[in-house]
Structure formats: structure tokens, C-alpha cells
Amino acid sequence: MSDKKTVRKVKKKNPNLRLVKNGDIQPKKSRRNKDKQEKIRFGRSKRMGIAAGTCVFLLALFIGGYYYIVKNYTITTVYVEGNIHYTNEEIMEMVMGGRYGHNSLFLSLKYRDKGVDNIPFIQTMDVSIEARDTVRITVYEKALAGYVSYLGRYVYFDKDGIVVETSEEKTAGIPQVTGLAFDHVILHDHLPVEKPEIFDEILNITQQLSKYSLSADKIYFDSNYQVTLIFGEAKVAIGDSQDIDEKIMTLQYLLPSLVGKSGTLDMREYNEDTTTYSFEQD
């Protein structure tokens, strides 16, 4: 009897069969779950691509619109009217200052249904867009009858004697009124003078001067409220308020002869038949 053990060869029926140990068993993923995960990944990528494309399109649309507005709505023509105290350039800076101040579309939105307020000497300013490249600024200044000098500042008052503004700068075309006595000044309050009705006379004088395109440097009242108009070195004694309109109308013809002269033209005694007035040189 032989000691060798006889080993029987077992013929494999399935050549693809493999042995798997218990610890190595892993659950087999189903085909359905795999397809579902692939679909989720594909759907998410598609949505992200669409969102990115939409963002790029919107960005390009925004940039294109921005450059179109900047190029086609740039202001090249500005009309400024009604301003006396401020220059055209100063008015333009007030209205059109800032990054997009020269864009008519921006200005139309900024000043839609409203003007420009809270500026010294100005009641309001209207901004009108007349074309894509054209704007009109209409200035409505506060009605100033004159100004007085007080503590180193120019105090401007209106026809009612109410203090409108105080400034360190003198405004051209507004006469200085001297000879009035007052001891204090309050903004937006009446100038405290002894004779409040004097402001009606001041307003009448300034209106008459403006009517005949005359610009007095000063309107002087003496202690009896007699009026003297000062034009440079020349003085014109007007007297009281009687016939003051006729006196200023006549003055427009006499004033050219006073240019460069220093002295006083006496117009206190006025009548329609008077053709000459005395002039006393200083």
C-alpha cells in the first residue's frame, strides 16, 4: 500500500468563477443607482453651465449698455440763464458736479420733478434736458434790494428789508446802502432800522436804476433820509422821494457826462422845465 495520498483533481465547471472570502464581500451597486448618480452629475453640470452663460450674457449686456449710455448721452452744450451772483462755470459745477454729472440721462433722473435748492443767493434752479447732449439751467436768484456792510461782511436784504444772505464776497449789480443805523443783524429777519418803510424807497430806486440800465455803487441816506446816488467818484444828490422816478429817468442822459469826474450833481430841485443842473467838483 502506498503512502502517497491520492489528490483528485476537480475540474472547474466555470472558468470565470472566483472565491471571495467573507471579509471581502462588498455590496454590488445596482445599475439603476449608478445611472441615477450619473444623471445627477450631468444635470448639475448643465445647470451650472447655463447659470455661467447667463451671467456672462448679462455682464456683456450691462457693459454694452453702459458704454452706449456714456457715448450717446454725454452733454456737450449747456445753457445757463438768470444768474447774476454766480458765474456760468460756478452754476455748472453746482448742477453737473460729480462722476456722472455730464451725462444727460443721469441728470434727468437726478433732477426729475425737483430743482436745486439750499444754495446761498439762489431761490432754486431748474434743470431741463433739451436733447441727449444739451441741458438748460434756469437760475432763480433771491430778490435782493441792496446790501449793508456789517462787521466785515456784506449783509444782503430783500425788498421787505429781510436779511437774505451774509457773505464775504460782494455781488456785482447790487448797490450798497449806507447811512442806515442798526445795531445787530439776524439772518431771515428784518434789518432793525428806525424807519422800516425806507426799504420801499430803496426797492423803488433799485428798480428805476435797473429800468434805465444804470448801476449805482452806493445809495446814501443822510440823517433826514435825503438820497444821494454814488457812481464811482461822482455823486448825484436826489433829495427826497418826491419825483424820484422822473429824476432817475433824466439821470440816464446826464450820467455819461460825469464819467471820470469827481464831484456832486445837484438834482434836488426838479421840475419838467429844468434842462440844466449844477455840478460842483470836489
Description:
- It is a single chain.
- With 282 residues, the chain is α/β, with parallel strands linked by helices.
- The chain folds into 2 domains: 77-141; 146-281, 3-Layer(aba) Sandwich (Rossmann fold), CATH 3.40.50.
- 29% of the residues lie in helices and 22% in strands.
- The chain is built from 5 helices and 12 strands.
- The chain has helices at residues 31-72, 88-96, 104-110, 198-211, 244-254; strands spanning 77-81, 122-131, 134-141, 146-150, 153-157, 163-167, 176-178, 218-221, 227-231, 234-239, 263-266, 279-281.
- The strands form 3 sheets. A 6-stranded mixed sheet has the order 7-8-9-10-11-12, covered by helices on one side. A 3-stranded mixed sheet has the order 1-3-2, covered by helices on one side. Strands 4-5-6 form a 3-stranded antiparallel sheet.
- A hairpin with a 5-residue loop joins strand 5 (153-157) and strand 6.
- The relative contact order is 0.07.
- The mean pLDDT is 82.
Brief descriptors of the model:
282 residues; alpha/beta; 29% helix
Distance between the termini: 169 Å
**Helix content percent band:** 25-40%
CATH class of the largest domain: Alpha Beta
The main β sheet shows up as: 6 strands, mixed
Order of helices and strands: HEHHEEEEEEHEEEHEE
* Spatial strand sequence of the major β-sheet: 7-8-9-10-11-12
Shape: elongated
Counted up, domains total 2
> Beta fraction of the residues?
15-25%
Low-confidence stretches: none
Class by SSE composition: alpha/beta
Any guess at the CATH architecture of the largest domain? 3-Layer(aba) Sandwich
Instruction: Tally the beta strands.
Output: 12
